[in-house]
Design goal:
Blueprint lengths: L1 H16 L1 E2 L22 E5 H7 L1 H40 L5 H55 L3 E5 L14 H11 L4 H11 L1
């Protein structure tokens, strides 16, 4: 679950950081506006891995989501162990002829219902976690996009690319604005009471 979460976060960040005509809040080109000639393009790029590891928003919420994911796993594991123990006890007593036929059928039906309830709980908790992750991803995307729009009012970049792994075959460090972007994002970021309480508890 943690690996999938980080992969989703990285993918969202990559999409968020790729902006054309960044001085416009709408990423689509206005047909009435003249496009810049290729030779006049002003380009920059941002390291996605650095965003994920140094942006306080990412660190706070990844910690929160990791804790929620772990709590879900612990809850499901505990109930699974309870069901396994009850099933093993039932089978042992069944072999010892400790039940009548009616009793055995009733207990077996109860165990089957516990299994079905556990499956339903698994689906519900997984869905709730996905909703929370999607909510975080949207907030992350919005925060980066809003910052870049404001940041680019002065910088006037035509294109800001995201660099993650080897998705860019070559990138001159002179065009790297990662440090500026991270510093700006962290300056603008304000922890909410909920995130502060969650992260403080996680650090204990």
């Amino acid at each position: 679950m943690k690996k999938n979460l980080m992969k989703t976060m990285a993918a969202v960040a990559m999409l968020s950081l790729t902006m054309t005509a960044c001085n416009k809040s709408n990423p689509q080109q206005d047909e009435k506006q003249p496009t810049a000639a290729p030779g006049s393009l002003k380009i920059a790029y941002v390291e996605v891995d650095s965003i994920m590891s140094q942006y306080k928003f990412c660190k706070d919420y990844s910690m929160i989501l990791q804790k929620k994911g772990q709590n879900i796993q612990n809850t499901l594991m505990a109930k699974q162990q309870q069901l396994q123990a009850a099933t093993a006890n039932f089978q042992q007593k069944l072999q010892q002829n400790a039940y009548t036929r009616e009793q055995a059928e009733g207990i077996q039906a109860g165990l089957q219902k516990q299994g079905a309830d556990l499956d339903a709980l698994n689906r519900r908790l997984t869905n709730e976690f996905q909703v929370e992750t999607d909510k975080y991803n949207k907030a992350l995307r919005d925060s980066i996009q809003h910052f870049l729009v404001a940041y680019n009012k002065d910088k006037k970049y035509s294109l800001i690319l995201s660099k993650a792994g080897d998705n860019l075959l070559y990138a001159d460090k002179a065009y790297d604005i990662t440090s500026e972007v991270i510093a700006g994002l962290n300056k603008a970021y304000k922890s909410t009471a909920a995130t502060k309480a969650a992260t403080d508890e996680e650090k204990k």
